[in-house]
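agent> call fold_tool(seq_1)
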Amino acid sequence: MRFIKIVLVIVVFFVLYFAYHFSSNAPVTTSEIFRDDEAAQAQRSVDQFIKELDADKTSYVARGAHSKAHACVKAFFEINEDIQAELQHGIFRQPGVTFKSWIRFSNGKGGMKGNYDTNKDAHGMAVKLFNIYANGLEKNAADSETQEFLMHDSPVFFVANVNDYNQFLESEDKILYFVEGINPFKWHLRELIHALNTLKPPPVSPLKTQYFSNTAYKLGPHNIKFSARSCSLQEEQSSTENSDPDFLQKEMVKKLSSGDGCFDFMVQLQDPTKYMPIEDPSIEWRESDSPFISLAKIKIPSQVFNSPEQREFCENLSFSPWNSLDVHRPIGELNRIRKEVYQASSKYRHKKNKAEVPTNLDW
C-alpha cells in the first residue's frame, strides 16, 4: 500500500507542480488573525512535544529540536551607521551601537541518537543579545532582558498552520502524513516539497551559509522577516573530511582558531499589495517583491569555544523567539504556539537535567 501511494505521488506531482506556489489560500493582511481553537492547539503542541522529548531522552534530555550544537560562540552585533529613519526601532534605534551576544549553531534534528553532521537536515542559528539596555534603550513592561533571533537555513517553514503542524507531530509515519488517504488532491504535496527542501545536505560550514526567520515579526510599525547571510557565502569547499559525523564543529574550530566569522543581518518588509502573508510561513516572501535591507553586522571574533565549561553553558541556555523587545515581537499563529512550546520544553528539560538556565551571560 505504501509503495502504491509513493507511485501516485510521482504521477500527480507534475500535474500539481505548476499550481504549487498558488495552492495556499492564506489572506494577506497587516494584522494577525487569531484562531478560535488556538488555546487547544497550543496545548496539543505542548503535549506532543513533551512526549517526543521523553521518547528521545537517555540519561540526559536534549532540546526537542536543534538538539546537537556545533558551537556556542561569542559575537558582536554591530548596528549599521546608515539605517533609514523609518527602520530605527528597538535595538536599531541608535545606529553604530554594538551589542554583545551568544550564537548557537546546530543541526535541526531532535534527539542526539544518529544526529550526524553528514545527514540531510535543517541547520540553525540562534542569536542572543544581552545587556541590551546598557546604551540608553528604555525597557517597557512587555520587554525581555534579551533580544533573540532564531533562524534556520531555509526561507520557509514546511507547514502552513498549527493544525497541520500538530497533525504532523502526531503522525506515527511522518512520510505517510503527507500522502494520507487515496485522494491525491488532499495530500500535503506543497508541504512535502518544503520538507524535502529543508532536509538538505550540510553546508560547507555553519559560518558560510544563509539563515532565515521563516515566520514574521514586528519592527516597530512594520511587519518583517529577517535573515543572516554569511559575508563569505561564496568561499571554496571545506578541506575537512565530510564523512566525519562532527565535521561541522571541526570546521568551525578550524576557522575560528585563525580567523573571524561574519554575517549581514537583514530585514525584509511586508508589502501587503504582494503575496506576503503573515499567517502562512510556508509561503516565501520573494525578494523580487521586497528585497532584504541590511541593518547590522554580526562579527564572530577568533576564539576557542569548545571547552567543556562553555559547552555545558551552551546546553543550559534557553532560546526563544519570545525573548524579545515588544517592538520586535513575533507575530502569526505558529509563533504564538511557539511561545507555549518553548517555555514548556525548556522547563521540562532543565527540571529533568537538574540544571538551571544561566543568568550571567556576560563575557
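agent> call fold_tool(seq_2)
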Amino acid sequence: MTSASPTPLPPIHDRLPWSGLLALSMAAFITILTEALPAGLLPQISAGLNVTEAATGQLVTVYAVGSLLAAIPLTTFTQGIRRRPLLLTAIAGFLVANTVTAISGHYGLTLVARFIAGVSAGLLWALAAGYAARMAPDHLKGRAIAIAMAGTPLALSLGVPAGTYLGALIGWRACFGLISGLTVLLIVWVLARVPDYAGEAAGARRSLKNVFTLPGIRPVLFVVLAFVLAHNLLYTYIAPFLEAAGMVGRTDTVLLVFGMASLLSIWGVGVLIDRHLRTLTLACTALFGLAVAALWMGRDAPAVIYTAAAIWGLAFGGCATLFQTASAKTAGPAADLAQSMLVTVWNMAIAGGALAGGMLLEQFGTWAFAPCLLALLAASAAVTVFARRHGFPAHKTR
C-alpha cells in the first residue's frame, strides 16, 4: 500500500553513497551466510536436532525452495510498497529465521524457519540491485551494484569458513545467534543510512509478461541460466574432479583459492563495469572456459588445479554483478521485477547443476563434465555476442 503523501526522493550527488551501499552489502553477506552455513556445520546440527546428516542437508534445500518460489510473486505483489520498509521486512525475516534456528530443538520447526529465510532471500535479492542503482548517479550504477554485491564473495570465502570454525568452538546454535545479532545491527544501519523510495504508481506497474518480453531481458536470463548452471555443476562436484590428482583432502584449499580470486574479481568488475559490461561478461565466460579446459587436461597435476581454481574464481566472482547490472539497465523502471526473474533463474540453475551433475557422474564419470560445461559456456558467449543492442550492449555506458 502506498503512502498518501510520498516524501521527496533523496538527492543523488555525483558520487557513491558508500554507507548505504555497504549496508546493502552487509545484507548480502547475511543472506549468503544464512544460506550456506548449515553445510559447514552439518554434523553438529545433525547431532543437535537428532536427525541424520541427509535430513540436515534439507535445511539448505528448503531455503532454496523458499527463495525460488517467493521471488517473482512477492516482487510482483509489492511493486507499490515503499522500498525501505520492504527491504527491512526482508531483513527482519532473517532475524526471525536465524533466531528460531538458534533456539529450536525440533527439526520441523527448523525447516519452517529455513523456508522463511529462503523467502526473505528471494525478496532481498530481487530488491538489492535495483535499490543500489537508484542510490547512484547514472554513470556509477554498475559500480554501486558491485559494492552492494560484495558481501556475497566475502560470505563465501571468509564468512562461511569463519562460521564453521566458530561452530566448533562455541556451538552451531551460538553461530546462528551471532547472525541474528548482526541482523539487528543491520536494521539500525538501514534505518540510519539507506534512503527510502516510493513504490511504483499503479499506472506505471508492469506485468510479468510485459517485463519478460522487454528487449534484452530474455538474453540476459539465458546467459544467467547457462553460466550459473555450468558453475554449480562444477562447484557441487569439484571433489570428484580432484580425485585423479589425489587432492580430495585439499578440497577446502582449492575452494579457498577460488574464493580469494573471487574477491579480486568483484573488485575489478566494480571498477570497470560501467564502461565495459559487455567486454567483462565475455571475458569472464572465456576465463571460465579456460579454467574448465585446464581442469580437464591437467586434472592429475596439483599446480594446474590450483591455477585453474584461481582462474575460475576470477571468472565467477563478478558475474552476479555483471548479470544484475545488465538486467537492471535493460529493465529500467521495472528493475525489481526483472531481478526477481533473475533470482528465480539463478536458483533453478543451482538446482539444475546439482541434478545434472549427479546424473553425469553416475552415468559417465567426471570425463563428461568438461564437454558439457564448455557447451554451456559457448552458448552463454554466443548469446552475449548477439545481444549487442539490448542486454549486453556494445556501446560504452557513461
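agent> summarizing second result for user.
The CA atoms of residues 45 and 97 lie 15 Å apart. The radius of gyration is 20 Å.
agent> awaiting next instruction.
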